[in-house]
Automatic annotation (TrEMBL):
Residues 345-624 form the Trafficking protein particle complex subunit domain. This is Trafficking protein particle complex subunit 11 domain-containing protein. It comes from Hortaea werneckii. It holds the Pfam family Foie-gras_1. Residues 657-1215 form the Gryzun putative trafficking through Golgi domain. Residues 37-48 have a biased composition (Polar residues).
């Protein structure tokens, strides 16, 4: 857009003058206005507001200036209070341009009197009707008209004044005078510019009430509208308050500014309807020329469109601009009626370009993206048709200059529009793929969504249009090169007739003249075409890179470099080509057909620019291509380099196969997949020549192969005087032991065209690991240069086959694995044997484990060993393992020297494990042979231990009768010893059925009950166990264990229940072992009542009678209350009893009573069947004991031997036969 006058392409914003806050220099380039001999001058005498608050106010007002904002509806929205402006701070004195031109001077008549003018109507100074206008008499528009409304005729003047209190009445009166002077001057100017006044004060009305009277006096004296004409700004302490005041001020004044441009639109519409040429000057005065009616329509359509832009009504502006284009290009338009060689035709064409530019800008503003592209295409086609018919045609450099400019304008408009869809997004991508969120093109708008839109008609980003401009500039340069030498000579050295002929042969619309377009010779080597191409390529590349289109960016830079090469600008071209060449990948689809031209161009530029490093690298790559200069030469590579670039010092360059080609390919394969430390593994290295050299061989000076274990193998070139046919097919090189980290060998490394050389060698390794080929490097050079080409593992030539020589021929041998670039180095196989003695299938909780490890040396010589034991597996329980050796340190023990075929034993102790678990531990023995102390060997033995519980127990519990008499309630402590428990003694029975869950037979040596914990003030005494013999317990067998204990409270007054925690402690050994193990089985917690009444039953035989027993029922009252019980003995068919069938008993506190019954068993045969193995008979007497007060039935418990309780049938008593 720089080719057009700046006012033509500038965006329209309402112009606002700010006077009274100081003047600022305008940075915008404006067209100079003609000297204003008339006009209106505004002069005021009040002082300028320069304090800090005024500067903050000016800063906030300038934030609403939209001159540098993007050209889109979101950046400059149209709703009220959101419009942006062109703010222009000016001084107290400023000028307004004249509204009308001065009248023409009248010639005097013969009698000395002036002749009355024929036309008395005056017109604008920029009207075609005014003789002093720059477009008089038949011009349409001038950039000065745009400048006038953009910078000289404001829609609003905001004047700022300070007001004071009573002590400054003269200053307040001066404010009134200045306001009236401004109003009067604006009224005389003829413009409908509005005026608003802002009064600033250092005090608020609350602090200085007299200010309200002064402000009212100013309003009455100036007749300013209190709503839109006069504002008061009290002192404000923060910038936020000032910003709020400014927004409120502009929101109030915005309708006034919009109305100003609406009035101008109405005026232009009326003049168009009236007809612009109704009152013209005489044809004599105008020289017979005048603006046509079509020209007047164009003028007023443009005016209405511009005023609509001022109002930000872009859809309305686009309609007026489109109508102006139709008028210009119509059959009656200036472009069809005026001759193409006239200045009026060129001015009309320039104006048409500007209007078309504004049409596209308006469509982008309202979001008609595809519509903007269609308008751009249609106007280009219309202009091409116009130039073909009425101009010089489309085969001139002038046309391609316009075509390039028109494409560049589209790119600039898209940039200035800053469409949100083309901007980067702040949201993060949902995936990790490195893509950009900026779109490359936009879909058509809704109005065109149902129509078939070509891909070209969808709006693409600015880079696409810069590429079109670049291509048109290339065509322009090609046309410029066709300019004849006569036309390239400066006009001051050419006859006038020849110069006149040039204007008829060349289209110079907004383009240089032929001698400027392509001067002869180029002055100082300056070529403006290349500068334009450089600028356009840079702009396009920037846009493509911003959207991740790196291929397009590289393509346009490559095309620029080609143009620079055509212009013999090799240094500049090399600066562009080297980055492309260094980052280009010959396997990339972008460079499928371009890599060789890129390489050839870089090679040529490096030669002309004397860049030896790039020249050497590209020459190396060109050896891979047929048709290159090297392929057609019989010289060797060193001779070619020496002839082309005689270097003063040695050239060194490095390339990589991941980016650049190599005429020599490398392949290396291990012939075995696995090997062991100290053993040799075969390797085969192949060099395959793809060089295009004819007779001269390619000599590789050195090949370096680097492995991942840090070793490097180098093969140096050694001349072989024998002919190529006499050389062996496969060269066998010396073996390389594992002790060498760097090894070098010599071989013949000369390669003929399409020849493959094979080299075999053996490698040894010192450490166990997976060894891979890290990279391989080819060195080519001599004393003058050194080229290094590196192949990473991914770039090496892969092959699953090696070649073996049979009968003088090479045959392929397929390897049975795919990864031939690696070999797995296993540790040296140990011959040490490890045997664990004393290991059982199962171990038990609380058992201490003792094992013995035997190390048997099966090596060919003595060894020195160290053993380490550690727990393995995922188990939360730690395993305590110790070596039973004096010199053991933690988990490691030095076994020491073991002779050949000898053995050594080491004991291991494992502490008892307290919970069942699966435990495992490993013993790692590291040793080395006496002859190879640097080669460690290792043997590992993993041992698993299954830990289970040896026993399971089921418990039964009940009370027993304690035969000790209870103390008297009436004399409780008289007979008690001091320090002895005074509570009532209770006797209890605990029975356990111990079941073996071990797989082995265990010998039970003892089973005792131990007291773990009792409640406070409680004494618990356990009787000794009656188990005196060792009991053998097999798997799933059960052994009964009976025990008794007595509890007693420390005081009779303690009525709390007793809590007792017991454990069953079993001491046992394995059947064959002697080490005793103690296993503790917890007994569930027992809660024993101490103050509740109970009934116990014991039995006594009657010595005088057979089948008779005496039952003793003991009723205990441990409470401190008198209790009454009702006793009822139920009759039975199995026995007869003597005693009270029903009776009531009262029991004193802390006392015990006994009730006896004699039972006689009936002598019945069916009863004899119920006898047990002890020749006794069980009978089931039922005695009900009911608490008379609580009506609670007490349960009868067994109080001794021959009495048992069944859960279903109740109490049973054994009667001996």
């Amino acid at each position: 857009m720089e080719a057009y006058p700046a006012p033509y392409v500038q965006h329209e914003l309402p112009l606002v003058y700010l006077t009274g806050l100081g003047e600022q220099e305008s940075g915008s380039d404006t067209a100079p206005m003609p000297r204003q001999e008339s006009g209106s001058r505004v002069t005021t005498s009040s002082e300028t507001c320069t304090d800090e608050r005024a500067q903050q106010l000016l800063k906030e007002l300038m934030k609403h200036d939209g001159s540098s904002r993007a050209w889109n509806s979101e950046a400059l929205p149209g709703p009220t209070a959101s419009l942006k402006y062109r703010m222009k701070p000016i001084s107290r004195t400023f000028n307004l341009p004249p509204r009308k031109a001065a009248p023409l001077p009248q010639a005097p008549s013969e009698d000395g009197k002036s002749t009355p003018p024929r036309h008395t109507e005056l017109h604008s100074t920029l009207s075609p009707l005014s003789p002093g206008s720059p477009i008089y008499p038949e011009g349409i528009m001038t950039p000065l008209w745009f400048t006038k409304h953009q910078h000289s005729v404001p829609s609003l003047v905001i004047a700022f004044f300070k007001v004071y209190g009573n002590d400054n009445a003269a200053r307040n009166e001066q404010v009134q005078t200045d306001i009236n002077a401004i109003r009067a001057t604006l009224g005389r100017s003829g413009y409908k510019t509005r005026l608003s006044v802002v009064l600033l004060s250092d005090k608020s009305i609350l602090d200085a009430p007299e200010l309200e009277e002064h402000i009212s006096a100013i309003r009455r004296a100036t007749t300013m509208d209190p709503k839109t004409g006069l504002f008061f700004m009290p002192p404000m302490s923060s910038s936020a308050e000032i910003a709020t005041f400014v927004r409120s001020l502009l929101s109030t004044l915005q309708p006034l500014m919009v109305e100003h441009y609406r009035d101008l639109t109405k005026h232009a519409r009326r003049k168009k309807a009236r007809g612009g040429s109704a009152s013209l000057a005489s044809s004599v005065e105008r020289g017979g020329r005048s603006l046509s009616a079509s020209g007047w329509n164009v003028r007023y359509e443009i005016k209405q469109g511009v005023f609509a832009e001022f109002r930000q009504e872009m859809d309305v502006a686009e309609r007026h601009f489109s109508a102006a284009i139709e008028e210009l290009c119509g059959s009656e338009g200036l472009l069809e009626t005026k001759p193409s060689w006239s200045s009026v035709w060129n001015d009309a064409r320039l104006l048409c370009d500007v209007v078309a530019l504004r049409v596209v800008r308006c469509q982008l503003w309202v979001g008609q993206t595809s519509g903007a592209v269609i308008s751009w295409v249609n106007y280009k086609a219309r202009t091409k048709d116009l130039v073909d018919r009425r101009g010089m045609g489309c085969g001139t450099y002038g046309w391609f200059a316009w075509e390039s400019r028109w494409a560049e304008i589209m790119g600039q408009l898209i940039r200035r529009a800053s469409l949100p869809a083309f901007q980067p997004s702040d949201e993060a991508l949902p995936t990790s793929v490195d893509l950009t969120t900026m779109r490359t093109h936009l879909p058509p708008e809704k109005a065109l969504a149902t129509e078939r839109i070509a891909p070209f008609e969808q709006l693409h980003h600015a880079g696409y249009w810069f590429v079109l401009a670049f291509e048109a500039t290339v065509a322009r340069r090609a046309k410029a090169l066709d300019i004849s030498e006569e036309d390239r000579i400066s006009p001051d050295q050419t006859p006038a007739s020849a110069v006149a002929q040039r204007s008829r042969n060349y289209d110079t619309f907004l383009a240089p003249l032929p001698h400027e377009e392509f001067a002869l010779p180029l002055e100082g080597g300056h070529d403006h075409h290349l500068n334009i191409l450089d600028r356009l390529a840079g702009e396009a590349s920037q846009e493509f890179d911003a959207r991740g289109q790196h291929r397009s960016a590289k393509r346009i830079m490559f095309e620029l470099a080609q143009e620079l090469i055509k212009a013999t600008r090799h240094s500049r071209a090399l600066n562009l080509l080297v980055p492309l060449w260094e980052h280009a990948n010959s396997g990339d689809s972008l460079w499928d057909n371009l890599y060789y031209p890129l390489l050839q161009a870089t090679h040529e530029c490096a030669l002309h620019a004397s860049n030896a490093g790039v020249f050497l690298s590209t020459a190396w790559e060109l050896l891979s291509f047929e048709g290159s200069q090297l392929s057609q030469s019989t010289k060797s590579l060193p001779d070619y380099i020496r002839d082309q670039i005689p270097a003063q010092e040695k050239i060194t360059t490095k390339t990589n196969a991941s980016r650049h080609l190599s005429p020599v390919q490398i392949s290396l394969a291990f012939v075995e997949k696995e090997t062991h430390v100290g053993e040799l593994v075969g390797c085969q290295l192949s060099l395959c020549s793809r060089t295009t050299l004819g007779a001269a061989p390619l000599i590789v000076s050195r090949v370096d192969v680097v492995f991942t274990d840090g070793r490097t193998v180098s093969i140096l070139h050694e001349n072989n005087p024998s002919s190529a046919s006499a050389r062996p097919i496969i060269s066998n090189l010396p073996s390389i032991p594992g002790s060498e980290t760097f090894a070098s060998m010599k071989a013949d490394l000369s390669l003929l065209r399409s020849e493959t050389r094979l080299f075999n060698f053996f490698l040894g390794f010192r450490e166990a690991n997976v060894v891979r080929i890290r990279d391989a490097t080819i060195h080519v050079g001599n004393d003058a240069f050194d080229l290094q080409h590196t192949f990473d593992e991914d770039n090496l030539m892969r092959s699953r086959a090696i070649q073996v020589e049979k009968q003088g021929q090479a045959e392929h041998y397929m390897l049975p694995w795919s990864d031939t670039f690696s070999v797995t180095v296993l540790p040296k196989p140990p011959k040490l044997q490890m045997i664990m003695h004393g290991l059982h299938k199962q171990y038990y909780v609380d058992e201490r484990i003792t094992l013995e490890l035997e190390l048997m040396n099966g090596e060919e010589e003595s060894i020195d060993a160290t053993a380490t034991v550690r727990q393995t597996g995922k188990n939360d329980l730690p395993l305590s393992i110790q070596w039973n050796e004096q010199d053991a340190l933690g988990g490691e023990v030095a076994v020491g020297k073991v002779e050949r075929d000898a053995s050594r034993k080491v004991a291991i102790n494992i502490d008892a494990i307290l919970e069942p678990a699966m435990q495992s531990f490993e013993i790692e023995v590291r040793y080395f042979l006496t002859s190879e102390p640097d080669t460690p060997l290792m043997k590992v033995l993993v041992t698993e231990l299954k830990i289970t519980r040896p026993f399971e127990a089921k418990y039964n519990f009940g009370p027993l009768l304690h035969t000790t008499p209870w103390p008297s309630y009436f004399n409780l402590s008289a007979q008690e010893e001091e320090g002895k428990a005074e509570g009532l003694p209770y006797r209890w029975r605990l029975g356990a059925d111990v079941k073996s869950s071990a797989e082995d037979e265990l010998s039970i040596r003892s089973a005792d009950v131990l007291v773990d914990q009792v409640s406070d003030s409680t004494v618990c005494d356990v009787a000794e166990s009656d188990l005196t013999e060792i009991h053998a317990l097999r798997t799933n067998e059960t052994m009964p264990v009976e025990s008794e204990f007595v509890t007693r409270k420390a005081s009779l007054d303690d009525r709390r229940p007793m809590e007792v925690e017991l454990s069953l402690v079993i001491k046992w050994t394995r059947k064959e072992g002697t080490t005793e193990t103690t296993t503790r089985l917890p007994v569930p917690r027992l809660q024993l009542p101490s103050s509740e009444p109970r009934v116990l039953c014991t039995v006594e035989d009657d010595a005088s009678e057979e089948d008779q027993v005496i039952l003793h029922y003991h009723l205990e009252n441990p409470s401190s209350h008198f209790l009454t019980f009702a006793l009822t003995m139920e009759a039975s068919d199995a026995f007869a009893f003597s005693g009270a069938k029903y009776r009531a008993l009262s029991i004193a506190p802390l006392s015990r009573l006994r009730v006896d019954y004699r039972l006689v068993v009936h002598d019945r045969d069916e009863d004899r069947g119920n006898e047990d193995q002890d020749n006794g008979l069980w009978v089931w007497p039922v005695l009900q004991v009911v608490d008379s007060y609580y009506q609670k039935t007490l349960r009868v418990h067994s109080g001794g031997r021959r009495v048992r309780v069944d859960e279903k049938r109740g109490l049973a008593v054994q009667v001996k036969a």
